[in-house]
Amino acid sequence: MERLTTTCCVVGGGPAGMMLSYLLARSGVSVILLEKHPDFFRDFRGDTIHPSTLDILFELNLLDEFLALPHDEIDFVRLNVDRKLYPVADLSHLKTKCKFVALIPQWDFLNFMATRAKKFPEFNLLLQTEATDLLFEGDRVVGVKASSRNGEVEIRADLVVGTDGRHSLIRDKAGLKSKSFGVPIDVLWMRIPRPPNPPENNLAYITQGLFMVLIERKDYYQTAYLIPKGEFKQIQEGGLEAFRAKIVGIAPFLTPTIGEIDSWDKVKLLTVVIDRLQKWHRPGLLCIGDAAHAMSPAGGVGINLAIQDAVATANALAHKLREQTSTEQDLAAIQERRLKPTKTIQAMQVLVHQQLINTNPSSTKRLAFLLSVVRFFPFVRHYIAKFIGVGPLPEHVRTAPP
Q1: Exposure of 289 by Cβ count < 10 A (0-12 exposed, 13-18 middle, 19+ buried)?
Q2: Hey, is 324 helix, strand or coil?
Q3: 269, β-bridge pairs
Q4: Could you confirm whether domain 74-103+184-271+356-392 is CATH 2.40.37?
Q5: What is the pLDDT along the chain (402 residues), one digit of tens a residue?
Q6: In 122-151, which positions are buried (b, 16+ CB within 10 angstroms) versus exposed (e)?
Q7: What does the alpha-carbon distance between residue 101 and residue 372 come to, in Å, rounded to a whole number?
Q8: What are the residue boundaries of the structural domains of the chain, listed by start?
Q9: Nearest CA to 153 among 123, 129, 169, 128?
Q10: Alpha carbon of 112 to those of 309, 310, 362: distances in Å?
Q11: Which one is the CATH code of 2-69+104-180+274-354: 3.90.350.10, 3.90.1150.10, 3.50.50.60, 3.40.630.10?
């Protein structure tokens, strides 16, 4: 068995884990980041980098380099509801460096951050290394057991941070309990080629209880199609032809290319969960991001909330980890700080799913009515833009190289 030692072992190479590892290594803290896959290429990851995250990249002097990557920008959000366009959020009024959401595949964002983090000698990324258990001394977590291409690995660390998503092994092994909140939908995730001369993309299309999001990529739409929770098998039994018909019923301009969905293998089920740990920590261990609070895709805010968690964690712990003076009280303080914005966003997501964004035709009518009202009150669009683009408690980088 290979044995390694570090100050902080971060488990999970998503947005929270990557940003935390970057910030700690930048501050002179030895970090090992574990990622079980050989790369970051996963289609099911979201594509939105919001203004609050772009502000963080600016504070790290990385913004210009990041925006040089191929990306799209959304500064005004519209929804297509029953063939009518409704303005929803105007980001041009935000008090941020960038007044838009950057649309970029998440693997590009993660590769970008990993490449920059590798410039720091304290940063160590172990790909194809999957955490399998925690190491304990009494009640304290003192490291991680993992499996790699070359065999078993034991990593001892002053602090383990679980950033391994909504199905977190770390939180399970730590015995941390979560509370779930009901969500009436799941999502089917697929690629649909862009047809010739497509219309301007309005991001979301809603018709009589059918809801679909189209995220523009180079030559295809990354498509999220909402279904009633637990009904994927029933949809499959209805046949691909009926499924394709529902899609073009929502967005008729996809008719020329919908035939590309010629197998259920091209349709992935994403189970939507909203939950939150009652306690995010124990001695020697902290969970953040989706490992602490799984979010719905609504608003695309989960990525950015996870990054805010990472910045808050680095701000609180970088110096103390370097000096080996961190305590569980410091971990509790991080949860206390991040709990309010998490509760606020999750409460809003639960309300939106119960009343507006689900598969009930009556909810589509309610949504259309509310959006028709929003049309006449620009300040409401500004508030929605701030909620989505910035969030209830934006974090700013307080760490610096030693």
Answers
A1: buried
A2: coil
A3: 188
A4: no
A5: 899 999 999 999 999 999 999 999 999 999 999 999 998 877 556 678 999 999 999 999 999 999 999 998 989 988 888 888 888 899 999 999 999 999 888 899 999 999 999 999 999 999 999 999 999 999 999 999 999 999 999 999 999 999 999 899 999 999 999 999 988 889 999 999 999 888 876 778 988 888 999 888 778 888 999 999 999 999 999 999 999 999 999 999 999 999 999 999 999 998 889 999 999 999 999 999 999 999 988 877 889 999 999 999 999 999 999 999 999 999 999 999 999 999 999 999 998 888 887 788 888 888 888 888 888 888 898 999 999 999 989 999 999 998
A6: bbbbbbebbbeebbbeeeebbbbbbeeeee
A7: 24
A8: 2-69+104-180+274-354, 74-103+184-271+356-392
A9: 129
A10: 19, 17, 43
A11: 3.50.50.60
Tokens 């809003």 belong to residue: 348
> Is residue 178 within 8 Å of residue 171, measured between CB atoms?
yes
* The two three-digit tokens of residue 253, written as one number: 């301009």
Amino acid at 110: L
